[in-house]
From TrEMBL:
Family the UniProt entry places it in: Belongs to the RPAP1 family.
Domain of life: Eukaryota
Composition skew (Polar residues), residue ranges: 29-39
Protein name: RNA polymerase II-associated protein 1
Pfam family, one: RPAP1_N
A GO biological process held by the record: transcription by RNA polymerase II
Keyword terms, alphabetized: Nucleus, Transcription
Ranges for domain RPAP1 N-terminal: 172-215
Length: 1271
């Protein structure tokens, strides 16, 4: 404790804790240590002057006063007691004055020099000449010698209470007596006296004295070591020492050499791993980084010229630790602050790429956020120095907006369903005891939501100021900071719709952005100039804002007239066709326009530009191919055509029967001419070229747009006779040639390596997407989209050509390997989070299975395809309602698959002796394998109605138009207007993992109440039918999706839904069948009773409700009793058995099961033996009191007798002998009236389904033990 109090508080990682909290912690530590303070304040009471005078008189009369008793100032000065001080008489002299001293001849003094003294006085030289001056060395030796001869006084005698003078005198007197006494004794006498003292004194007192003496001894040793070290230093000064530099005599102030300061000038030792994982450093070795954020090796020999060595704890190790960078970031030296922030920015950027994942023990980004890096950055942004706030902006952008995330989002934007933007919203803020978010501190908000903390810090207003300030600086220095500022705004806008609206309502910021970065008039681009020029980052920022809904998109267009601004810039780009290859803003402009059209705005403006601007632009791009910028423009143009086709199809479908005048609105005639344009661009992608162009992206958008064109024409039934001709054109000119490309086969081969992964640097308060590289699923999904619509237009091609089977299902197909791996991934954990980019794999899998189903025609699909579709459902992100609907339709309507011979064998019914079971309602249930098969077939017949039921209860029927064609890309966009959004949460799933059980969980938690008995019965039966189909057909999938406890509890919970619902024969049939299924899978012995039921409550709370319901309205039902007894098996928690046997003992009289009526294993109720003494006593009590009788509760009776008998004849534990005697004597007393009970307990041998098995003659070992108990 003393050691802790002596330590100086050190700052923690990054930023030190609050000073006040730290001092309070040390004050509490000091109070617990019971140490006396070094000084204290004594307040003397106020008294009257008369009393004060009396006290003064008393003090004057006091002969001895201990001045050490208090530290307060005395009002009266008390003279020192000099009564014992010896008086010396003055020595008589001859002269009146002392004799004058003479220095002698001063001429000789100039020649005298003193050693180690640069300039000595005349007096010192004379004393040195006369031999009266001692050197420092001699003085220290004299002092050391006197120290060594000095015998210290006893530290046990302090003289406290004796006064200052008298106490000191008495202490010295006692010390002198002890010294004389020891000198008069020889060694043997001293040892004898020592032994005598040790035997008479208290051992605790001896231990205390030794501990105190040890401390003083250590202190003396330290003093001696210090003196010795000083002596060695003095000696070394006189010897010639090897110095790190050669001293020049002309140097000033170098005559005294300070060796400790010259240590830094020596060569550094060779780097080595000195700090390793041990007891004092369990967290490992601190990582060191260079200025570019690269991890430094501790053993690498880095030259000092790299400027990576510094005066830290490990001067030989190159690089900076995070602690050191945090410290430097608050330095008063400008260059240090800038370098530290720049290095931290580079480290964060590298961390988001995953480069440190295998080298560091913990993810770096969460640790930096926890250390408070956000506050460092925000403080730096408040500085007025350009270099500081610019690097702070870069650091913040790298922290919250990983560059890789935005790059891959841009690359997937043109994929099928790539129009969705991620909502990176953390879980709702937990207010705790606070009433609102405004009551929370910045740190409390930061711990839960970093972006909201930025809003709290007024980052928006600061960015407005910095935007305006940077406008005055050199254009070459501000381009990157301005772009980083937009990266920050884009990430903040991705947080939620609330944050997007908050940004939009920051009028000063929005006005500045639109005015400076999306100007009304297009100005020719100048290198390095960003203000008053069209900036791609500003367009992307508006696109992210517009994706939050039609209302925000409309307000953005209306307030700033974005339709005019975008049209002006688009027309200017076409007019300046010579600079088209350098126009990097046009792709982002077209992408923004696409979002506006998908939100239902600016479609007419685009349609009016089609003949004069858009088509000429396409032709210009085709002529200037191949070129990277041109290919990007074409990709966004075709993606914009795709959005226009969907908008027109949706609009015409909704207003087909309307009487409105639609002549001025864009219609199918505006886009009918796009078919040839898209097909010609697609043919251009077949040409091999060495130019750097995004060829895969061009092929993807051409395939997807052609699929959308055919889908829209078929849905609108426009010129249906022309469809087969267009399909033939697509096949001959684009589709079949692309299937023969070698690059396509390479994409398919790499599929199994390109699955989406979760970000390691994503935190709860700052979600991230981080995907390592772009995957091939965009192209493959577009290819499957087009294949699917071709097969639906010309159904014969699916059977005759089988394009996809021949391409992807070859021998040793990589797609099959990928599907199996994906199935394992989807079912690997029951609480997995869906990575954002996995959504494209979901679409690919469904489209692939759908196409293969058409190509198989009469042949059956492998079971693995259905398994993966069922596993997909809990992983679908919110927004994919149409995909979920199509999966349900695919699964539920394929009755032929469900009618195939069941792959799992029927339950082993050998344990069941009765083929019928009588309910409390006196109805008989048939228990046989044929009856289970009959239940399965009846459930299959209800599959079409189950599809409608599940579609409604899961709320996945959001389409505003009844689509007769399955296309996920189309279907997602056909939601009703009030539900349509272009952004979905990055991880929230659409369907709960317990979806097979329908509304049962809502009924259990009283979230949903159904008063009508018929409706409640139908809801329960629908869930039981579908779950029973899955248990019979795909129990393995259910076991991977749900815990065993959840599967059992969801079925057993039927008894909680009404007092008589379980008596319905249809429901009871399924309850018996489920119990048999669970018994077959050995599930009833593997429940996790201490876990939580998924989407419900803890199992113990659930079981308590089940027991209460049984006590209230079970009527002793045999089937209910079976479900109730499952958790009472010996392998489960003792608290569950106590809940029934002790807490609810009244229900024991209703559990009248016979051993042969138990529908699962009997052995688990008897093995292992009960070892809880409370349960043993209660078994004896219920037997002795007659609560349980063999004729009424035969199963419970046999259980109690079995465990009581095992306890009584247990000879291995001597500590329970007295309890055994008490129980056996009580049994003997009762045996006078209940002799049969005594005999059944004593003579019990084992259990069976026919009842207890008894000994005819008790074995001798048991007989001897029984006699011993009865003594």
């Amino acid at each position: 404790m003393d050691k802790d109090l002596g330590m100086r508080p050190k700052p923690k990682f990054g930023i030190s804790d609050d000073a006040e909290d730290e001092m309070l912690n040390y004050q509490e530590l000091f109070n617990r240590s019971n140490m006396q303070p070094s000084a204290q304040v004594i307040r003397e009471p106020k008294v009257k002057r008369q009393q004060s005078n009396e006290n003064d008189d008393k003090k004057r009369k006091s002969p001895n006063v201990d001045l050490t008793e208090t530290t307060v100032m005395r009002p009266v000065i008390i003279e020192r007691d000099v009564s014992t001080t010896p008086i010396q008489m003055p020595i008589p002299v001859k002269d009146s004055f002392p004799e004058a001293k003479h220095r002698g001849n001063e001429d000789d003094l100039d020649k005298i020099t003193l050693p180690n003294v640069k300039k000595a006085s005349l007096f010192a030289k004379q004393m040195y000449r006369d031999g009266k001056l001692k050197t420092c060395k001699e003085l220290k030796e004299t002092k050391i010698a006197s120290t060594n001869q000095h015998i210290p006084r006893s530290s046990l005698i302090t003289g406290t209470g004796l006064g200052e003078v008298i106490g000191e005198r008495d202490i010295q007197r006692i010390h002198d007596e002890n010294t004389e006494r020891l000198k008069s004794m020889d060694e043997n006498e001293i040892l004898a006296e020592k032994d005598k003292l040790l035997n008479t004194l208290d051992p605790k007192l001896i231990a205390f004295i030794r501990k105190r003496s040890k401390k003083e001894g250590d202190e003396i040793i330290r003093i001696n070591e210090k003196i010795t070290a000083e002596k060695m230093d003095v000696d070394n000064q006189t010897e010639k020492t090897a110095l790190p530099i050669e001293i020049d005599s002309r140097w000033v102030h170098m005559n005294n050499i300070e060796h400790e300061k010259l240590e830094w000038m020596k060569d550094l030792p060779k780097p080595s791993i000195q700090r390793t994982i041990d007891e004092t450093n369990a967290e490992g070795v601190p990582a060191r980084f260079d200025f570019k954020g690269n991890l430094m090796s501790r053993t690498a020999d880095i030259p000092v010229t790299a400027a990576l060595h510094h005066h830290g704890e490990e001067p030989e190790a190159a690089g900076y630790t995070l602690d050191e960078l945090f410290h430097l970031s608050r330095s008063t030296v400008l260059q240090q602050r800038v370098i530290a922030l720049q290095t931290l920015s580079n480290i964060i950027r590298q961390a988001h790429t995953g480069i440190y994942d295998h080298d560091l023990q913990l993810p770096l980004i969460p640790k930096l956020i926890e250390a408070g890096i956000l506050f460092l950055i925000r403080w730096a942004m408040d500085e007025q120095i350009e270099s500081v706030y610019m690097v702070a902006i870069e650091c913040l952008a790298n922290l919250i907006a990983p560059r890789k995330d935005e790059e891959i989002l841009s690359q997937t934007n043109h994929w099928p369903c790539g129009y969705y933007e991620p909502l990176l919203t953390p879980p709702d803020i937990d207010l705790g005891e606070k009433k609102s978010e405004s009551d929370l501190t910045d740190i409390e908000i930061l711990e839960q939501d970093l972006i909201k903390c930025l809003f709290r810090m007024n980052v928006l207003k600061r960015l407005v100021y910095l935007f305006d300030r940077m406008k005055l600086l050199s254009p070459l220095t501000i381009t990157i900071p301005v772009k980083h500022s937009f990266h920050i705004l884009i990430r903040m806008a991705r947080h939620s719709m609330t944050c997007a609206n908050q940004i939009f309502e920051e009028r000063q910021l929005m006005d500045f952005i639109i005015r400076e970065f999306i100007p009304e008039i297009s100005v020719p681009t100048e290198e390095g100039h960003v203000y008053e020029h069209l900036l791609p980052e500003a367009l992307k920022f508006c696109r992210v804002l517009a994706s939050h809904g039609s209302t925000l998109a409309f307000n953005l267009i209306d307030r700033y007239e974005l339709n005019k601004r975008l049209r002006n810039h688009l027309v200017t780009a076409v007019n300046l066709s010579s600079s088209l290859q350098d126009n990097q803003t046009l792709p982002e402009l077209l992408s923004l326009w696409r979002v506006f059209i998908l939100q239902g705005h600016m479609a007419n403006e685009f349609g009016s530009l089609m003949p004069t601007v858009i088509l000429p632009l396409c032709q210009l791009c085709i002529r200037q191919m191949p070129n990277m910028i041109i290919s990007q423009i074409l990709v966004q143009l075709i993606t914009l055509f795709d959005a226009l086709i969907i908008h027109v199809t949706k609009f015409i479908s909704k207003h087909r029967n309307s009487s409105e005048d639609l002549s001025n609105i864009v219609n199918w005639s505006h886009i009918d001419g796009l078919f040839d344009m898209i097909l010609s661009i697609g043919k251009q992608t077949m040409i091999e070229t060495d130019e750097q162009i995004d060829i895969d992206a061009l092929r993807t958008v051409c395939l997807s747009c052609l699929a959308s064109f055919l889908t829209g024409q078929q849905l609108l039934m426009i010129n249906l006779l022309d469809l087969p001709i267009k399909v033939k054109q697509i096949r001959d000119q684009f589709f079949e040639p692309i299937l023969r490309l070698k690059s396509i086969k390479r994409l398919i081969e790499n599929v199994k390596f390109e699955t989406a992964i979760s970000s390691t640097n994503s935190t709860t308060n700052l979600p991230a997407l981080t995907q390592r590289n772009i995957s091939p699923f965009g192209f493959l999904t577009a290819l499957l989209r087009l294949t699917n619509i071709i097969y639906q237009i010309d159904k014969s091609l699916a059977v005759t050509k089988k394009f996809i089977s021949q391409l992807m299902l070859t021998k040793n197909s990589e797609i099959v390997v990928y599907i199996k791996n994906m199935l394992n991934k989807l079912t690997s954990t029951r609480t997995r989070k869906t990575p954002w980019f996995e959504q494209f794999e979901h679409i690919f899998l469904f489209q692939f299975i759908q196409v293969i189903k058409q190509e198989k025609f009469e042949n059956d699909l492998p079971s693995v395809y259905y398994e993966i579709l069922l596993s997909l459902l809990p992983s679908l992100l919110k927004g994919y309602h149409y995909l979920a609907q199509e999966i349900f339709k695919f699964v539920f309507f394929d009755v032929s698959y469900w009618k195939r011979s069941n792959e799992s064998e029927l339950a082993d019914l050998s344990l069941i002796t009765h083929e019928t079971l009588c309910l409390a309602s006196n109805e008989s249930l048939t228990i046989s394998s044929s009856h289970r098969t009959l239940l399965y077939e009846r459930a299959i017949e209800h599959l079409p109605s189950l599809y409608t039921y599940y579609k409604n209860i899961l709320h996945i029927n959001h389409s505003s138009i009844d689509l007769n064609i399955c296309d996920i890309h189309f279907g997602n966009l056909f939601q009703t207007d009030d539900l349509f959004k272009l952004n979905i949460h990055y991880s929230y799933t659409l369907i709960d993992v317990t979806w097979p059980y329908g509304l049962l969980s809502s009924l259990y938690t009283n979230v949903l109440t159904i008063k009508e008995d018929d409706k409640r019965l139908e809801v329960i039966l629908n869930a039981l039918r579908f779950v029973y189909i899955l248990e019979m057909k795909h129990s393995l999938i259910l076991s991977k999706m749900l815990t065993k406890t959840t599967r059992f509890s969801m079925i057993a919970g039927i008894y909680l839904l009404g007092s008589d619902i379980f008596l319905e024969k249809n429901i009871a049939d399924y309850l018996v069948a489920f119990l048999n299924c669970f018994n077959e899978q050995h599930l009833l012995q593997k429940l996790e009773t201490r876990s939580t039921i998924q989407s419900l409550m803890t199992f113990f709370d659930f079981y308590r409700s089940l027991v209460d319901q049984y006590e209230a309205c079970s009527f002793g039902d045999i089937l209910y009793s079976n479900y109730l007894l499952v958790p009472l098996q010996q392998t489960y928690d003792i608290q569950l058995r106590k809940e029934v046997w002790i807490e609810h003992s009244t229900i024991l009289k209703y559990i009248r099961l016979k051993p042969d009526q138990l529908l699962f294993s009997l052995e688990t109720f008897f093995i292992p033996y009960e070892n809880d003494l409370e349960m043993i006593r209660y078994y004896a009590q219920v037997l002795l009191t007659g609560t349980i009788q063999n004729t009424i509760q035969p199963l419970l009776y046999m259980i109690a007798v079995h465990h009581l008998n095992a306890f009584l004849f247990d000879q291995t534990r001597s500590e329970q002998f007295s309890i055994q005697q008490t129980i056996i004597k009580n049994l003997q007393i009762v045996s006078t009236n209940e002799k049969k009970l005594y005999e059944s307990i004593i003579n019990y041998k084992t259990f069976s389904r026919d009842g207890p098995v008894m000994f005819t003659t008790l074995p001798s070992i048991r007989m001897n033990w029984l006699q011993k108990l009865l003594q």
